[in-house]
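Lab notebook: predicted structure, single chain.

Context: the supervisor wants predicted structures on file for every construct in the current expression panel, including those that have not yet been purified. This is the next one on the list. No modifications to the sequence; it matches the entry in the shared construct table.
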Amino acid sequence: MFEGGKGTEDGEFDSPTEIAVDGNGNVFVADTGNGRIEKFSSTGAFLSIIGTKGSGRGQFAQPNGIAIDRAGDIYVAEAGNHRVQKLAPDGTFIAEWKGPELGFHGPRRIAICPDDSIYVVDQGHNRIVKFSPDGEVLASWGSKGSGVGEFNDPTSVVVDPATNKVYVADPCNKRIQVFDSNGKFLAKWSVPQWGQPVGFEDLSIDSRTGRLYASSTHLDAVLIFDLNGTTIGTLIPKPPDKLEGPSALALVNRKLYVLNMGGNRVSIIDLQTAAEMKHRRTTTSQRVQFCRTDA
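Prediction complete. Output recorded below exactly as produced.
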């Protein structure tokens, strides 16, 4: 667990909303209230700060989304500046994208495909925008509503690298929608636990095990689905690892990093350990309560 804590010093947070892990295991946190990105080692040691509050190149206003490509370049979605910035691994500015047509309005989350195409949740316009690595708009879909392919304040997007299917969190409509890589609607999954006003639900996928993980900020839990949309479990860590307003997820090597917006810290859930506990009776000595089935 990364202790963090509320504040402005190195390693502290103010309402963090997103987390990402690079190819070397370094952890990046969108320290949204402080207008910066913080970088940590895989063990939680503070490494550096990227950016400051502002609207210039390499500055941030309400950074809400982070994604890292195979080259280590960092993509940051800013709700306050209504743009996505692309930065080098050391934080040097490379480019900025302001979206097609009307531009972005409160872009929220970012996902990167194996072919390096990039998906952005343009929350204020209730759509998903797909870019090439050079910033060319490849596709855009969605509008406000509750029908097929419509959204009501979507909060997250994730791509299955095995199939290129695109999963979008649509919590105000209490569902996850599934699309092909160009936005063709494929399916919708009911998520009755969603729909509360907190609004920071996130998704993460493990195509190897066929699991999709969805945070629930008001339940302080992570929901687990198979890739047919069946809810098969819930992760509820016990104190001192209890989740507090989980706002973001990142999955690497069967370890699920959970960003706690309420607690200003990062929890790490070992999914292999959770799976091994599935047939055991939960006791007070176990840090993770796993409900119903395996992780």
